[in-house]
Write a structure and sequence with these properties.
Helices cover about 70% and strands about 0% of the residues. It is mostly helical and about 180 residues long. It has one domain. The longest helix has 28 residues. It is globular and about 55 Å long. The termini are far apart.
Length: about 180
């Protein structure tokens, strides 16, 4: 059974790392880990949203193997590319808010995890945590239809799908057989 509270738990962990022992100036390792946890909260919420949208939310009515396959089918780079392009199509504001937050959080996480020269501040990290919370809430507020469309956008990255997306962006669509 999937953990439906994983994203929220990661947000709680991120906040705990920032507020560890009530220190005014948390350790850099704690701040870096908090940024990473904020990103992974958004990542796991995206994975859950895609699996729920495409396979279903009712454990009794969905094939659990398919749900897990969709959940695990999210790749960090492909998700980032999809979020980069989400602002260029007709997604509602909630999807665009999530996509922008995801993009920013992934950049911040990569810096926190791999840049030995970066110095993070407590307020800055609290901003990344709030960004994750806001993005997650925004994605949760969009309609099921829009979550299905976004899940498809994120997961299906074949050459044919890219071609179809380019046609839609260019306004070059027509009915089948027309």
């Amino acid at each position: 059974m999937p953990d439906t509270t994983l994203a929220a738990g990661l947000i709680v962990s991120a906040n705990a790392l920032v507020d560890a022992s009530g220190r005014r100036k948390p350790a850099q390792a704690s701040l870096r880990r908090a940024v990473s946890s904020a990103y992974y909260a958004a990542f796991h919420q995206l994975a859950r949203s895609c699996a729920d949208a495409l396979v279903g939310t009712s454990r009794q009515r969905r094939p659990n193997r398919a749900w897990v396959e969709v959940y695990r089918g999210i790749e960090h780079g492909a998700a980032r590319a999809a979020c980069d392009g989400a602002g260029n199509v007709g997604f509602p504001a909630g999807v665009k808010t999530f996509a922008d937050a995801f993009r920013q959080l992934q950049i911040a996480r990569e810096a926190a995890d791999y840049d030995p020269m970066i110095r993070l501040g407590k307020v800055e990290v609290q901003g990344f945590i709030a960004l994750a919370e806001d993005g997650i809430a925004a994605l949760g507020a969009v309609s099921r239809t829009d979550r299905i469309a976004f899940a498809t956008w994120v997961l299906i990255t074949t050459r044919g799908a890219r071609h179809a997306r380019n046609r839609v962006r260019a306004g070059n669509t027509r009915a089948v057989g027309a």
